[in-house]
Amino acid sequence: MAMIARRSKSSVHLLHKVLFSDHPLPCSYTQRQTYVDVYMKWKKDSFFDSIDTIHRSVQLKPLIALKNCIVSCSPNDYCIPISVISKKGLELGIPIKVARFLRLYPSVFEEFTGPNYNLPWFKLTQRAIELDREEREVYLKFKDDISLRLKKLILMSGREQRLPLKIIQGLQWYLGLPDEFLRRPEDNLDGCFRVVEMEDGLKGIAVDVHGSERFLSVMQMNAMRRGIYSGVEGEAIEFPLYPSKGLRLKRKIADWFDEFQKFPYVSPYEDYSGLDPNSDIAEKRVVGVLHELLSLFVEHAAERKKLLCLRKYLGLPQKVHKAFERYPHIFNLSLMNKTCTAILKEAYCDRGAIEEHPLAKVRKRYIKLMKESEGILRRRRFNNKPIDQGDSNIKDLDCTDDEDKKFTT
């Protein structure tokens, strides 16, 4: 991870070019401009790598998608034959065969023999049904809060105040939006939202805001609470820092960052069209946008690549992903599950700084229920008892012909 230390206040454009470049400038050139390239070894943080709500979402997301599919197909008895969902793996984001995935979580999905043709059926367990009802109650009770988070995301687009519907759908899991919100946005969103036509024939969602209505970021609200921010435009707000154990910035980097903290803070909800994209203030706005964006998400984290689609609409630079690396005291990058996840440190190091998403507790209970499946499967293996699949002649529609022959012999 490369960090840049600045020794002078001149050549701001060059600093931005160095910061956002994949390749450092030649040594002679940097010395002539009194800049120094400083390289720092990547530091893994075991604390953030162990947060279940972040890293278990890889399994939780398709599990809830399957649960919703079962509920929508059979809202009364919560059970369906495997034939109904066996071909929906790609649509539901399941990386393996659907039947195999269902059998990995017996605490959530219970398998039994169907009434016709001896096909396997799956139904939700009683605890999964209770969690589904609790989840729907949260959507109903906190509908205004969830709509507000969506509104804030759209308002980060500056003057446009609109985002393509497909981009919002891509962030639906992180925002905690229920499926029906975006299936029929005209019916489920309040009057301040409008469905509009955007470029390239895309549908989008726009927000109408009254002239006197002002939105404050988490940074601004916390600074006001501490009495260090009055709300005047151009005031400086320093980002809270949370160094990882064993991670120390070199002196040159620390000095550069101290100067960076003193630049004016530009709210993500303010018009940024007048900012010079090559200025330090624009760089600080980028960090502020990423901070506010992660604060709106359920786990206050997201796959880094999933945020790249927002560059064009939120006024972010081409190499915005490098901002997570340049500010290791604000963000953490985790490489668990073979993916790079950006995590907002403040949400986990200062519990009172950022409000917990109303859906977070429900997801934690889902994860706890998922973990119980590991114990169930372990006991089955220990007792040397096969999974109860009823009649041995049942055919799994997800099986290939070779697998089917092995199963029936």
TrEMBL record:
Signal peptide range: none
Pfam families given in the database record: PORR (PF11955)
Encoding gene (name): LOC107031968
The protein's name in its UniProt record: Protein WHAT'S THIS FACTOR 9, mitochondrial
Domain PORR as annotated: residue spans: 43-373
Domain of life (superkingdom): Eukaryota
